[in-house]
Amino acid sequence: MPAKPAKQRLTEAAFALFEERGYDQTTVDDITDRAGVGRSTFFRAFRSKEDVIFPDHEVLLSAIEARLAGSDPRTATVAVTEAARLVLRHYVAEGELALARYRLTRSVPALRAREIAGTRQYQRLFQEFVHRWMGGGEETALRAELMAAAVVTAHNHVLRRWLRGQATDPEAAFDAAMADTVALFGNTGEAETTVVAFRTGKDLSAVLPGLRKLLGDEGTLG
Known about the structure:
- Residues 4-64 form the HTH tetR-type domain.
- Mean pLDDT is 86; it is low at 189-200 and 211-222.
- 68% of the residues lie in helices and 0% in strands.
- The chain folds into two domains: 6-51, Homeodomain-like (Arc Repressor Mutant, subunit A, Orthogonal Bundle), CATH 1.10.10; 56-186, Tetracycline Repressor, domain 2.
- The chain has helices spanning 6-21, 28-35, 39-45, 57-69, 76-94, 96-107, 109-133, 141-163, 170-184, 204-215.
- It is mainly α.
């Protein structure tokens, strides 16, 4: 069987040691000794011990940016959903590694702070994209910020439930959560329908012919 790449060996060694000894008690030398590589190999793969916990953050940011950039106003909602799905699928594919990271970030304040900072970067990407999609005007800035926050919150809700063993089908849970999220914002890009309400003293039968003519052949009342 081919030897595992050095980065993979380092990651597995680090997480095993973090679980055995604790994050703060594990040094870079401990990790390299367990992985059977030198310090120079470690620092070619990671900038710090903390980076071992979040090795693919920049890759995921680039993947989200690329998915959003490949959309247009007609497919913007789908792009937002699918970009968030990329992150969910990445964590699910990690399996035990994702579960170990979750335990660590719950118990080490510095790692939790790093995780929160990363989440804000994801949210900023979505916010900037949604703002452009909505026209980029000052009047849509708050709406874009709210929608981006809702997308990230929905994703994180599903991911946490999966990490806690409360969701056996995270993809289905994600689809439902994103449908609810998109519905919160209603119509954001398609042509809108205008509804006009008015008072009249005439009988409805006398008013309907004029309304039908105003609405055209496709208009329906009743």
